[in-house]
Amino acid sequence: MEEKKDRSAGDSDEKGFLELQLTEVVKKVVKAGAAMRRARKATRKRYVVPGLLDFRLLARIGKAWTMVDFTGGRSSGYGIRWASLTTDDPVLQVLIESSKEFRDQKIIKQSL
Question: Is the pTM of this model over 0.85?
Answer without folding.
Answer: no
